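Chapter review: from sequence to fold.
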Amino acid sequence: MSSNRFKRFLGQSSIRQAAALLTIFGVVSTLTWSVTYWMVRNEIERLVDARLQTQTQSVVDALENGAPLPSPGFGQSVALLKDGQISAGNIPFTFDTESATEGYFEFDFGEPTEPDYRFLVKDTPVGRLIVAENIERQDELFDVLATGLKIALLSSLSAVVLTGLLIARRNQIRLDAINDGLTKVAQGDLTARINLPDRHDDLSLMANWTDATTARLQRSMEQIRVQSANIAHDLRTPLARLRAVIEHHHAALLNGATPVTPEALEDALAQVDRIVATFDALLRISRIESGARRASFAPVNLQSLVRSFEEIFEPVVSASGQSLNVSVTHPTEIFGDEELLLQLIANLLQNALRYGKTGQTIALTVDGTRITIADQGPGIPADKRQKVFDPLYQLEAHRQNEGFGLGLPLVQAIVELHDAQLSMSDGPSGVGLSISIKFPKLTNL
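The C-alpha cell string follows.
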C-alpha cells in the first residue's frame, strides 16, 4: 500500500473511529487483565503466608510445651536454629542465618529443575524458627494464569480488530456511496440516487432523506424549466400585442395622423394587467411552496369553513344558472391556514362554474377530513389529470385566454403545504369531474 493510499485509508472517519475504539478497548482490557492477575497472585501469596504463619505458631506452641518439633505440613520444611546452627529439623537450602532478619523471604535456586521456596523467619524464646514451603506449584499456576490471560487478551484484541475493520469497511462503503451520490448532485446530476439498502439505521435514513430531497429538487427544477418555457410562451402574445399597439400609435403620433384614443390605452393597459396578474399568481404560488405560511397554521373547523363559504358563494353560483349542494358529515378540525383553504375551495368551484354546463349541480361535501367537489362538466381526461397542475398549462385550445392556467397549480401548492392528498376521478355516474382532498388529522404539522 503506497503512502498516499495509506493516508487516505487512515483518513476515513470509520477507520479512525474503529482505531479509537480499539485503543480504548485495548487499554481497558490490558488494565483489567493486569489487575486480575495481580489480585489472583496476591491472594495465593497471602494464603501461602497464612500457612507459614500457622505452622510457625504450631511449632512455637509445641516447643513451649516441651513437645518435640512437630512434623511439617505438605511441601513444608521446619528448622530450629540456636547459635546460628540448626539444632532441630532442616531446610532444603542454605542462607546467611546470622544476618537474616525476621519476615517473609523467597529463595530461588536459579535452576529450572530446582524448586523455589518461600519461608518465614521468626525469633522465639526457644530460638530462631525457619518455616519454608515449596512454591513451585504456585509459580506454575502463575505461569499458566499469565499465559491464559495473554492468550485471552490477544484473542479479544484480534477479534475486536477484525470485527472493527469489517464494520468500519462496511460503513465506509456506505459512506462512500452517500458521498458519491452527493458529489453527482453537487455537479448538477439530479437524477443520481444513493439507493442504500434499508437497514433501519441512521445511514440508511440519511440516504433515504437525501434521495427524497434530491427527487424533490429534481421535480422543482423540472417545474422551473417548464414554468419558464410556459411563462415565455404565455407572455409572448400579450407582450407582442402591447408592442404592436404602442408601435402603431407611436408611428401615428410621429406622422401627425391619428391621435391616441382611450380605447388604445385601455387595450395596452389590459395587456399590462394580464402580464402583472400572471406574475402575481406565480409569486403567490412560490410563496406558498416555500412553506412560510406554516407559521400561521391554527385549528380550522371544516364545517364552519364550508358553511361560511356556502353563504358567500351561493349567490354567485345561482347567478350563473347553476346550483350548489353542500353536505357535511362527521365534521372535524384540521391544522392549517384558513385563508388558503378558502382560496383552495374557491379555485375549485370557479373551475367547476367556468367549465360546467348551465343547470348543473356542483356538489361540495365534507366527510371527516376529506373535502370533495364534483361537477357535471366535460371533466378532464385521465392522461391529462397530472398535466393540469403545471403552471400556465391550459387543457384545450378553446380555453386559451379564459384564465392564466394557474388555478390548479395554486390548489396543488396549498395541498402540499398542508401535507394533504389530492385525487381526481370521474364525477357521479361517470359524468364530470370529482376532486377529493384528504387532510391529515388535527396535529402540529
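Two observations follow directly from the output. The first strand starts at residue 76 and ends at 82. The CA atoms of residues 192 and 269 lie 47 Å apart.
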